[in-house]
Design brief:
The complex is a heterodimer of chains A (about 750) and B (about 375). With about 750 residues, chain A is an alpha/beta fold. Chain A is built from 25 helices and 27 strands. Chain B folds into two domains: about 220 residues, 3-Layer(aba) Sandwich (Pyruvate-ferredoxin Oxidoreductase, domain 3), CATH 3.40.920.10; about 100 residues, Alpha-Beta Plaits (2-Layer Sandwich). Chain B has about 375 residues and is of the alpha/beta class. The radius of gyration of chain B is 23 Å and the shape is globular. The chains are: A alpha/beta (about 750), B alpha/beta (about 375).
């Protein structure tokens, strides 16, 4: 046996250690809870010079999967980690990779698939992978996360298929446990062995084509090869387990059982619940009951024979699924276990329960009750476990449909925001003679009369800029508004069920797709108005997104702008993926520390410049693009009013506000407006508008004698404070030059209307 | 069990629950306690936090399970019936949920501003022992953090005869990365260990203020279930977050309104993230305009943005404890019906990055 050391680590932490020890070439990733910590931990190791893993933060999971695929084709050893909707967003890439037979490893940290949006753990994501052609190893403990990560790559390269290591989000990914790991990286690397390339893609003397156009009669043969590879995986897994056991002393099988030999009733669970259930098994055994538990380590290839041999002597088998294959009479696991038992000729009585969705905790008592359920002939053969009816039992749903909305209008806290209540004329817009939009009124005092579209009581951090900016936007718009928020802090803190902050129609959609979704809402509204199905009158449609949503959702936003739907795209830019704990976004300032751009001896923070989204949007030719800040509220209100004017008359308007995040900028909540002002005065965030293609600078810090060097602004925030050090002078200089260059471009554009 | 004399429990686990607010460092404290058990106390241990939690001001729960070294820790569920309950912030005492599952063998440690002489009211459940420590004061004086003081206090209650092992875990966790911060933190631990006091028996019975504890708050109880919730997760209760009382997210300070100075410019309303300022039609200097009628303190999170932008010092920073009756306290003016009760809560949480936040706060950022 090789020397091992004891760690106290969570599943994500030990996964990162395994990845470091293996010595992968490249990680393409996109942050998504609860898998994000893997990349974060690796980034810390990178910053400290403990690994030379190349890490590429993609702008979305789809791209991350593409980066990984490309790197795998190129012959690299490649790793990825994702969860939930990230997995689903990338899913079209996965059969491509298995079909073309490029090995890699991906950790899937299981989480509930939206919507409604839940960040917590269940198995609804991983079951979408069952048909992807990837072997799937499922770890139910922290120790197994480490062990399976090592074995996964060996398996992947052994059968030339990409492999998933799956484990429970939070229960396994975030709980710290005692676990063992090999002391020497060499042990790990020797176990996995050298990588053999079958057809080296980058061998220029022997060029190959990957990704053929292939129909009948050939494709079925390609798929048969994949099927054979999966069979081979099934065959070599026991060999890998055995070899690993010799190194580690830890013994694995495809199926793991506990006190099953003489068990009359067996509980079948996947993931961390299996461990919890063992506690119940011991309790019940203590009372003389013959019970046992079973779980599997390989979801693909599915170990049907082994399952049958574990369960063959039982009378009752209860399979509990942490997801449902809606309409199929059970979750995927229970369906496959039923098939396996039937194939084996077993007459065991099988029941299925769906439990623990959305991360609902699984207690020892739950396992006890499930056993009782299995043994009680009166309990149904398939049911949900742990649902609650609700307090008011008056109006019952029938078969999942409700005819009437619960009558709650009468106890609303606020009167509806009718057109009359908001159209008070505090801010007025009209087209001037020069064709541009002119705003009158719009004072802060007068616009305070517009009822707020957001109710108080939302859960943003103290001093958060998002509600400030949304309120500034909305106080300028007197027409009724319809809001769509893309995923992000703004949505999370306002819509935590069973409450909502919104007093106007609101929709959340995933942040790859908000702009497109709003296009659909706007167009159906205009159509219904035209047909007289809903009353006429201007309605302003607004998408609100963070800068993160403008990374992953940039394509959707650009498409919407190019089509020219009449709506507003509003971006609050706090320079990071704050909702998931501040990973770098493309709008994070260069040099800034984040959870995926740590500062250490090998790394100084984020390595590339902040994205210039307003210029990208301006290039689509939409009638109005502007930047605004809360430190200049009058200017902000005017721009918001103009954006609304264009949205109701002409086409898409884009407005971007710099938005404070005291938590992650690491500064004082009280002083955020000054930090924002400094960002404007150093020209990091210039105030300008591009109206009908003409650029106008609204505020020139130089002319006002308020220009400051960028370092003054950077020094105000904890995330960029380190750049004050002499060692980083070059970074600050580059940043200053880039800011000056961009500002000079803007000035030139403002001076030359043709630009 | 282990190197120390933790009580043997029926379950075989000694279970600690930390009740805290995001930003006080309970997550790190839990991690250190877990590691302490495994590395130095000859125990097996696990630790984790309630998920979806580290936004500033959010209620956070930390869980630590200890057991004998040779026992596997198989349970993954949160701790419902703690053997030791550690309350990091007194605002949490008003939440019935914080006391959930306490029983007659539960020991309790409470971080209490002003120490035990401030006790009023009573503990809603019978517990074994109740200890108090003025963690905030100690943290400020030692330039450490509340979590380190509480770590010292926990060590004391767990029966550690000295701080050698705790100091080692502190050095392991912080020493390498932040050698400068180590000294203060060790001092915080020491004073937490030494200044922890057993609340007098009758004091413990007088522990809560008159407003009492919201015992109705049971996490599992949901008004909406499958039989009556609108399909699709749709929420027709527009504006319903107004029922949240966010005062627990304040860190001791509130804005005070000095009305005679106010020029009704509205900058406060433009900078407030929480819609606290209640402007209504009125008259100022003979002119009809929107005037500031007062502040909705139910929703004020104490960020003090308004104090910073007010051009005439009509809004100033005050210590909340000194202003139990807030002048110009005006609930939201748009309400057509007052909430039956405001539910004390912190902001909603979401998972954030341990790696970033731990570093940030260690470098002297906001607690």
């Amino acid at each position: 046996m090789e020397k091992q050391i004891t760690e106290y680590a969570s599943g994500n932490e030990i996964a990162a250690i395994a990845i470091r020890q293996i010595g992968y070439d490249l990680m393409g990733y996109y942050p998504i809870t609860p898998s994000t910590q893997i990349a974060e931990n690796l980034d810390i190791m990178r910053a400290n010079g403990e690994t030379d893993l190349m890490m590429i933060a993609a702008e979305g999971e789809h791209s991350a999967a593409g980066i990984c695929y490309g790197a795998a084709v190129g012959g690299g050893r490649v790793i990825n980690a994702t969860s939930a909707n990230g997995l689903l967003y990338a899913i079209e890439q996965f059969p491509v990779q298995s079909g073309t037979r490029y090995p890699m490893v991906m950790n899937v940290v299981c989480r509930t698939v939206s919507g409604p949006l839940s960040i917590k753990g269940d198995h609804s994501d991983i079951m979408f992978m069952l048909n992807a052609g990837w072997p799937i190893l499922f770890a139910h403990s922290v120790q197994e996360v480490y062990d399976f990560n090592l074995m996964a790559l060996k398996l992947a390269e052994g059968v030339r298929l990409p492999v998933v290591v799956a484990y429970d989000g939070f229960f396994t990914s975030h709980q710290k446990r005692r676990c063992m790991r090999f002391e020497q990286d060499q042990t790990v690397r020797e176990f996995i062995g050298p990588k053999a390339e079958v057809y080296p893609f980058l061998d220029l003397e022997h060029p190959i084509t990957v990704g053929s156009y292939m129909n009948e009669p050939d494709l079925i043969n390609n798929r048969y090869q994949l099927h054979l590879a999966m069979k081979r995986a099934d065959r070599i897994l026991p060999e890998i387990f055995k070899e690993f056991e010799e190194l580690s002393g830890r013994r694995y099988q495809k199926v793991e059982g506990y006190r099953c030999e003489d068990a009359e009733t067996i509980l079948f669970l996947l993931g961390s619940s299996y461990d919890t259930a063992l506690e119940a098994i011991d309790q019940l055994r203590g009372k003389g009951k013959k019970v046992g538990a079973v779980t599997i380590h390989t979801l693909r290839p599915f170990p049907d024979k082994e399952i049958a041999s574990f369960c063959k002597n039982a009378d009752n088998l209860l399979v509990a699924d942490r997801q449902d294959s809606y309409g199929a009479g059970g979750g995927n696991l229970s369906l496959e276990v039923r098939a396996a038992m039937q194939k084996s000729g077993s007459k065991v009585n099988i029941k299925s329960l769906v439990y623990g969705l959305g991360g609902k905790d699984f207690f020892v008592e739950d396992a006890v009750r499930m056993i009782e359920w299995a043994e009680n002939p009166d309990m149904p053969e398939f049911e949900y476990y742990g649902v609650t009816m609700g307090e008011d039992e008056g109006e019952q749903l029938t078969e999942g449909l409700t005819g009437v909305m619960p009558a709650i209008e009468n106890d609303s806290f606020f009167a509806p925001l009718t057109r009359e209540r908001t159209q008070i004329g505090a801010t007025q817009t009209k087209k001037a003679e020069n064709g541009k939009v002119e705003v009158s009124g719009g004072s802060i005092n007068a616009t305070a009369a517009i009822p707020k579209r957001l109710a108080p009581g939302h859960g943003a951090c103290p001093g958060c800029g998002i509600p400030v900016n949304v309120n500034l936007l909305l106080r300028a718009i007197e027409e009724p508004v319809v809001l769509l928020f893309q995923t992000g802090c703004g949505m999370i803190v306002t819509t935590a069920y069973p409450r909502t902050s919104f007093k106007v129609p609101f929709l959340h959609n995933l942040f790859q797709n908000g702009a497109a979704t709003l296009s659909g809402i706007a167009e159906i509204c205009y159509r219904k108005q035209k047909k007289g199905e809903i009353p006429p009158g201007d309605i302003i449609f607004i998408m609100v997104s963070g800068d993160g949503g403008m990374d992953i959702g940039m394509g959707s936003a650009l498409g919407t702008a190019l089509r020219g739907h009449r709506l507003i795209l509003f971006e609050y830019d706090n320079g990071g993926y704050m909702n998931t704990g501040y990973q770098l976004s493309y709008s994070t300032p260069k040099g800034a520390r984040s959870a995926t751009s740590h500062v250490g001896k090998e790394q100084y923070g984020k390595t590339f410049f902040h994205k210039d989204m307003p210029q990208i949007m301006a290039a689509t030719g939409i009638p109005y693009v502007a930047t605004a800040v809360e430190s200049n509220p009058i200017d902000f209100i005017k721009k918001a009013a103009k954006a609304a004017f264009y949205a109701k008359t002409t086409g898409t308007a884009y407005l971007k506000a710099l938005s404070a995040c005291p938590l992650n900028w690491n500064d004082k909540p009280a002083t955020e407006r000054r930090v924002i002002e400094a960002a404007v005065n150093c020209c990091y965030f210039p105030l300008y508008e591009v109206e009908q293609g003409k650029t106008v600078l609204n505020y020139d810090p130089e002319a006002s004698g308020k220009k400051i060097p960028v370092t003054d602004w950077l020094s105000m925030m904890g995330r960029t404070k380190h750049l004050q050090k002499e060692a980083y002078a070059e970074i600050v200089k580059e940043m200053q030059e880039e800011i000056d260059r961009r500002y000079a471009c803007l000035k030139a554009k403002a001076e030359n209307p043709i630009l | 069990m282990g190197k120390i004399s933790l009580p043997e429990t029926a379950s075989g686990y000694f279970e600690i629950r930390l009740e805290s607010i995001g930003g006080l460092g309970a997550n790190l404290c839990g991690k250190m306690l877990g590691e302490l058990g495994m590395k130095y106390l000859d125990l097996n241990s696990t630790s984790f936090s309630s998920y979806g939690s580290e936004k500033t001001g959010t209620p956070v729960k930390g869980f630590i399970r200890y057991c004998k070294k040779d026992k596997e820790i198989r349970i993954h569920s949160p701790i419902i019936q703690p053997d030791l309950l550690v309350v990091f912030h007194q605002a949490l005492l008003w939440d019935g949920g914080a006391w959930e599952g306490c029983h007659e063998n539960t020991q309790v440690i409470i971080s209490l501003e002003g120490g035990q002489e401030k006790f009023e009211g009573k503990i809603p459940v019978r517990v074994k022992n109740c200890y108090v420590v003025n963690a905030q004061k100690i943290a400020m004086e030692t330039h450490s953090r509340i979590n380190m003081v509480m770590l010292g206090a926990v060590a004391k209650v767990m029966g550690l005869t000295d701080l050698e092992d705790v100091n080692k875990i502190c050095a392991d966790t912080l020493g390498k990365k932040y050698p400068d911060a180590l000294k203060g933190n060790l001092e915080g631990i020491r004073r937490g260990y030494e200044e922890l006091r057993l609340a007098e028996a009758n004091t413990a019975d007088r522990m809560m203020r008159e407003e009492g504890i919201n015992q109705d708050r049971k996490p599992s109880k949901r008004e909406w279930g499958y039989a009556n919730a609108p399909i699709g997760g749709i929420n027709p209760r527009y504006g319903s977050t107004v029922t949240a009382d966010l005062s627990p997210s304040r860190q001791g300070y509130i804005p005070l309104f000095i009305k005679e100075r106010c020029i009704n410019c509205g900058l406060c309303d433009s900078t407030c993230p929480d819609m606290v300022f209640q402007f209504a039609k009125g008259e100022y200097k003979g002119r009809e305009m929107m005037v500031n009628k007062g502040l909705d303190y139910y929703h004020c999170k104490g960020c003090l943005r308004c104090v910073d932008v007010c051009p005439v010092n009509a809004l100033v920073q005050g210590l909340e404890a000194e202003h139990p009756d807030k002048e110009y306290f005006l609930p939201n003016q748009d309400l057509v019906r007052m909430p039956d009760n405001y539910v004390k809560t912190g902001p909603d949480g979401y998972i954030t990055s341990e790696s970033y936040l731990t570093e940030k706060r260690m470098e002297g950022g906001e607690v």
